Amino acid sequence: MKFLERLFKTLISVKLAVVVILMLGILSAVGTIYESKYDAEYAQKLVYHSPLMYFFMGLMCVQLICVMIDRWPWKMRHAPFLLAHVGIIITLAGSLVTRYVGLDGSMTFNIGQTTRHVTVSGRELLVYASFDGQKFTPVGSRSVDFLLEPPDKHPVAIQLGTDKIEVLDYYHYAYRKQEIVPSESEFDGPAIRFQLQNDRVNVSRWLFLGRGQGKDIADLGPAKVVLTDSPYKNMGLNAIVFNFDPNKKQIKYEIRSKERGVSKKGDLEEGLSVETGWMGLQLRILRYIPTAKRETTYEHRQYPTPQTVSALKVKFNDEEHWMGANTVLRLFTETNVYVLSYGNKRVELPFDLTLSDFRVGRYQGTMQAMSYESDVLVKGLGKTTISMNNPLKHQGFTFYQASFQEDESGKPVMSILSVNQDPGRFWKYLGSLMVTLGAILLFWEKSLKKWIKEGEQGDRA
C-alpha cells in the first residue's frame, strides 16, 4: 500500500507534470525540425507517432485522471477543473480513434472513369502471376513499413512455390537512373542508339524492344524512327524502320520517303552511317546491343527533393533489381511471369463514383486555375457536384475537391479528390468544447471571486 501511495503522490506531483509537458514540447519541436528538414511522413513515423510520444501522452492522461481522483469528493467549484481535464482526455481518445479506425486518402480518376478505390499512406508489396502472359492472378501480398523496419534488420520475403522474392535494401530518398545495358537472357530483345544530324539538327535516342513489346517508336515530328519485330506501315511519312528478326537475331534497316517509298535498305551494324535523303540528315548507329535490358538503379539521397522517391532492391532467381515507389517490376521464369508492385495501399469503398465531367474556372487572361469542380455520379444520389467549398458526404465518407491534372494543351483530364472518414471527429469536437468551456468557467469563477472580494472590501471601508 505504501508503494501505491508513493506512486500516486508522484503521479499527482507538479514536478512530474512539468517533466511531461517539457518532454512533449521537446518532442513537438524535434518533429517540427524533422518535418521541415525531411517531410511530414518522416516526422510522423519517427516522432509524432513514436512510442516515446505515445508514452508521454499516455502518462499525461494517467496524471490527469489521478489529479481528478485526488480532488474527490467533487464540488461545484471543481466543475471548470473537471471539464478541462476530461476534455483533454476525450480529445486524445478521439485522435486515437481517428488514427486507427479512420480513413484519410485520395481518389484519382479520369473523366468517364468509375472507381471505388482510395489510395492511403500505408505501403504494401503485391505479387501477381500469369501462366499464359495474359491473365494475372494475385498470389502474394504483404504490408510493409521499411522506414521503421528496414529489410537489413527485418528481412522480407514472399514465397511463390519454388520461387522467392526477397527485399535486400531500401532507400527512403533516392534518385532514379535508367540505362540500357547488355543482357544474357535469350528472352530479351535488341536495343539501338541512333543519331540524326545535319547543320541545324542533332538528335540522339535509344530504341529498345522489351519482352512482348512488339515495337518502339521515336516520334520526331515530320519523321519517325521505328524498331519493330513485325511489318510496319508508315502512313505516308518519312520513316526509318529497323526490322528485327527474332529467329535470326538480325536487324535490317529501311529508309522510307513519303514520296518515293523505300529509298535505302541494308543490314544494321554498329557504326553504320548513311544519308537519309531528308534535309541533309545523316543516320548514324552509335550503339547496337543484340540482347539488351533496361536497367533501373537508384542513388541514395539523405534529404528529399522533388525528384526523389523511395526505392527497393529485390532479389529473384539470383538476379537483383531496383524498383521505385508506385511502380511495377516484371519477373520472368521459363513458365511464369510475375508482376511485383510496391506502393501505397488501396482501400475499397462500399460504393462506386463515376466522374462524368470536370470544369476549371480560370483568372481572366491567364491559365491559372481560380476554381475547379467535379460532377460525379453516385448510386442512390444521382449526379452531384464536388467543388472546393462544397464537399460530398455519403455513408460516413467526405469527399473534398483537392486538385486536378491537365494534358499538354491545358485541358483538364483527371480529378483528384481527398477522401476522409473520421469516426473520432465527434469526440475531438466534444473534448475541445469541454476544454474551452472549462477555461471560460475557470476565468469567470476567478473574476467573480475577485469582484465579490473587492465589493466586500468596499463595504467595510
Can you put this structure into words, describing what you see?
With 461 residues, the chain is α+β, with helices and mostly antiparallel strands. 26% of the residues lie in helices and 46% in strands. The protein is built from 6 helices and 24 strands. Strand 6 (191-197) and strand 7 (202-208) form a beta hairpin. Helix 2 (14-37) runs antiparallel to helix 3 (40-48) and helix 4 packs antiparallel against helix 5. The mean pLDDT is 87.
Query: Compute the gyration radius: what is it?
Result: 32 Å
Low-confidence stretches: none
Distance between the termini: 53 Å
User: Main β-sheet, in a few words?
Assistant: 6 strands, antiparallel
Shape: elongated
Kindly state the number of beta strands: 24
Order of helices and strands: HHHHHEEEEEEEEEEEEEEEEEEEEEEEEH
What percentage of amino acids are in beta strands?
A: over 45%
Helix percent reads 25-40%
Number of helices: 6
User: Averaging pLDDT over every residue, what do you get?
Assistant: 87
Structural category: alpha+beta
Question: Can you give keywords for this protein?
Answer:
single chain; 461 residues; alpha+beta; 6-stranded antiparallel beta sheet; 6 helices; 24 strands; elongated
